[in-house]
Amino acid sequence: MYEGFNIGSFLLGLPLGLAITGIILLISWRIGKKQRRYDERYQTIHRQARSYSWFATTAAVLIGWLIAILMEGPGPAFFILTAIWAVHMLSYTIGAAVASRNN
């Protein structure tokens, strides 16, 4: 299954790729800051987009959960989706608590 896969190359390339991505993101963020891209309107639009995305993810996980339990029964896929659901809901709870404390 892993024929031709060199773990050494992967372990050297992964940090390099992450560093390059970080540098590109930093440069684009600084340029955006100078052009005033991240104003109140930008924040409001992206806050609303994240809210819609959260609801879509919730629906997708629930549908996947239902399919996993109906097709396979309580197998690994069901428990993986249950863990994803728990992380999803826990992150929402923590985010709501932080937002409530800040406002």
Structure description:
With 103 residues, the protein is an all-alpha fold. It has three helices and no strands. The protein has helices at 7-34, 40-72, 76-102. Helix 2 (40-72) runs antiparallel to helix 3 (76-102). The mean pLDDT is 83.
What's the number of extended β-strand segments?
0
Overall structural class, as computed from helix and strand content, comes to mainly alpha
Our count of helices gives 3
Portion in helices: over 70%
What about the largest sheet? none
How big is the Rg? 20 Å
Span between termini? 52 Å
Nearest-integer average pLDDT: 83
What share of the residues does DSSP label as strand, in percent?
A: under 5%
